[in-house]
Amino acid sequence: xxxxxxxxxxxxxxxxxxxPEELFRYIATLVKEKNVAWDCATGNGQAATELANYFDxxxxxxxxxxxxxxxxxxxxxxxxxxSAENSSFDDDQFxxxxxxxxxxxxxxxAFYKEVKRTLKPAGIIAVIGYGMLQGDDxxxxxxxxxxxxxxxxxxxxxxxxxxxxxxxxxxxxxxxxAPQFVSKYNWTLEQLLxxxxxxxxxxxxxxxxxxxxxxxxxxxxxxxxxxxxxxxxEFPILLRIGVVE
Length: 245
Hints:
The protein is α/β, with parallel strands linked by helices. The chain has a domain of about 160 residues: 3-Layer(aba) Sandwich (Rossmann fold), CATH 3.40.50.150.
């Protein structure tokens, strides 16, 4: 698994969107026993924090020590620095395994081998992500240009799995119907720019050119964005749910 987010771990925890509560409520209804869950590549613990509301114990792993340092503490969450493809967990340990906005970085074969080993019989795996943010027409034009034309050459190849809504990832499980969910926010321009700064492609761009391309987006949006104004932003949730047979 690649680590593209340790460098910007602090702004990641501050500006990355989360996931709607109803998403985890729905996933929890599919799990017979709610004893133990594993959130892989937890980052700052966004998904783990939600899972902790439904499961007695949540284990949350990540390869980034800096990301884990920014994770939310809860008494029933245990954070561990280790790879999702080579974990230290026991066989048949978990009722649920989740991966949020990260599976595209994984070695699929190695990870799915771990999933099948560590999930209990009839256990559930939920692969979660979010697509490109949507605002009003003006914001959408600016973000589309920034995504495709400015940062496009600097995205890792794995990014395509998100563009394809996770429908093209390998998924060797009996699939369960996944309804559509949306994360909705009322963001200031500062919050939108903060989110853009978390993009791995932005960091790659800065490394190659020595300046931040988000500054140009800020200039363009400032022409149309009143100081202190908030605008609605929506992130379509990507979701694949499977059961181990």
